[in-house]
Amino acid sequence: MSLLIEVPYAGAANDYLYARICARRAELASGGLFRKSGSNEPRQALMAEYRWVYRQANAKLRNKLLPIFEYCELRLLVMALRYLAAGEREALSGQLQQSLLQEKVIRVVETAEQPVEALRCLQREYAEEYPFFDRLPTRYLRQGPGGLEQELIGGYLQQSCRSCRDQAVKRFLLYLLDMRNLQALRKHLRWQVPVTPPLLEGGSLEPGLLQKIWQQRDAAALLTLMRRYARQRQLPLEDADEEYLLQGLTDRLRQAGREPLQLGVVIDYLWRCWLAAREQGVRIFEEQTSVTPQAAEVQG
């Protein structure tokens, strides 16, 4: 049973959709994502475009892309549950607008009094298809939203990397899984955390290598591994691990997306939309939190 909505019509032929996506991709640099959605709100614009791609794809193509869409929607679900925990009902409903999640999933979250109540309902409904859902309520009660995010997203990446058959999609998911492991190692070494980092299984990086780096507390070896994995010329700067690894993924997807009639075009486009929404979100945040010299004088 899928977490996502079903599309009751055939969808477009691949070549036709690829051509349309290439055209839309060319418009991203000039704000195409926000013009097409009619919204400057990053999350809404992003989800509207993801919904368009999902509904335009034919059943075979949609099935190939399903792990990417499910991954994005589960991240959305984590944010919605955070709003639920904070009692921010309006923000919760706004977060789920344009979502591809099944209506019953949205209803469970919107009507629950507490996140654990929603998680138990989802456990009963989806644990057979997504076994890691069995661990969600307990993980949330023990470790809160942070533990829930690790269990939900980490569990999904491990499951999807094992089951995904399309190699382009699998490479994308593997990078995300490996990225989480590298970031976990980097964080534990930087802050000298005494417990073993929560490394996910099934990635493309050799588990023995990651364990050796941790056992030897070898930060230099980790930086070298990150540079080699992200295919960058320089080592990552302090506190810039995420941006560094994201750039590595962006480079890979852009290279794979150069062939106009291959699945890489769609994955590259979805990723570029995410980057555009992320950049817009940062810009809005900076504008809202910046204080001009004149305003500072007034406040003083």
Morphology: globular
Number of strands: 0
Element order, helices and strands?
HHHHHHHHHHHHHH
Taking all residues together, what is the mean pLDDT? Answer: 94
Strand content: under 5%
Derived structural class: mainly alpha
Protein described:
The chain has 300 residues and is an all-alpha fold. The protein contains 14 helices and no strands. It has helices at 14-26, 32-37, 42-56, 59-86, 89-95, 103-111, 115-126, 136-163, 167-190, 207-215, 219-230, 241-256, 264-289, 293-299. It is globular, with a radius of gyration of 20 Å. Mean pLDDT is 94; it is low at 291-300.
Supply database-style keywords.
about 300 residues; single chain; mainly alpha; disordered C terminus; globular
